[in-house]
Amino acid sequence: MADLSLRTCAAASSTTSDNTLANVRSALGLSPYWTPRAEFDETQTRASVWSQLELNDVYERIGGTVTSRQVERTDSDGIPWTATEITLTTDVPGVGTVETFTDLYDGPAEYGYRDDLPVLLALAETAQRCPAALPGNTSPCDGPVAVLVLDAQNAGAEGCEHHAARLLARLDGGRPVALPDAPAGAALRVFTASGDIRRGESA
Ligand SMILES: [Zn+2]
User: Fold this and answer.
1) So what's the pLDDT on residue 162?
2) CA 140 to centroid of ligand 1, rounded, Å
3) What percent of the chain has a predicted confidence (pLDDT) above 90?
4) If you measure from the C-alpha of residue 165 to the centroid of ligand 1, how many angstroms do you get, rounded to a whole number?
5) Separation of 7 CA from ligand 1 center, angstroms?
6) Ligand 1 centroid to 146 CA: how many Å?
7) Residue 169 and residue 129: Cα distance in Å, rounded?
8) 149 CA → ligand 1 middle, Å
9) Taking a C-beta distance cutoff of 8 angstroms, is the pair 88, 64 a contact?
């Protein structure tokens, strides 16, 4: 009997991809009309959502493992930029491994950024972060360690550009020094970003 029911299950799940689509839509809370768009790197078992708020909704509903990676994207003018993509990997019954992903937005809170979302807290727990990452901030690194941030006493911490800028913004008399293999302009970008962060926090 056990044998027979197993065979029936296997046959049922392989008959059509419609079942997979329906299961993925319902597990992730997607629209009943959602179909994967190859141009956005989607498949039947890999769906993008608008922002980390929507990703957090999925995480709070079905859980999973949260990871991040750097991806090269091109904007509508053809200019390349680097995004931090967050991926939630979940085992969906009847389907298998399903990925939900979005690009991290870590701009000002007034435009919707929150670093206290459970999905970002989970990411901060699993992700290896650079030494410049402040404990109170959950954002992932935005690239390799590129800059040494020195304080007024020349004590320093190395970090990715994202975390180096946040650390520098906390220091009085600090300065960024590019590491030998840093991309061109790294120290200047960190310096400029830290000024923006200071102004944002004092505003
Ligand atoms: Zn970092």
Assistant:
1) 93
2) 6
3) 63
4) 9
5) 49
6) 9
7) 18
8) 12
9) yes
Distance CA 154, CA 189 (A): 20
Whether the pLDDT of residue 174 is over 90: the answer is: yes
Ligand 1 mean position to 9 CA, how many Å? 46
27-36, 165-174, 194-203: range with lowest mean pLDDT: 194-203
Q: Residue 88 and residue 77: Cα distance in Å, rounded? A: 29
Distance between CA atoms of 12 and 59, rounded to whole angstroms? Answer: 28
Q: How many whole angstroms from 142 Cα to the centroid of ligand 1?
A: 6
Ion ligand 1 — residues with CB < 5 Å? 130, 133, 141, 159-160, 163
Q: If you measure from the C-alpha of residue 38 to the centroid of ligand 1, how many angstroms do you get, rounded to a whole number?
A: 30
Residues contacting residue 156 through CB under 8 Å, at least 6 positions apart: 148, 149, 150, 177
Amino acid found at 150 = L
What pLDDT is attached to residue 33? 94
The pLDDT assigned to 16 comes to 58
From CA 74, how far away is CA 26, in angstroms rounded? Answer: 31
Segment 140-154 mean pLDDT: 93
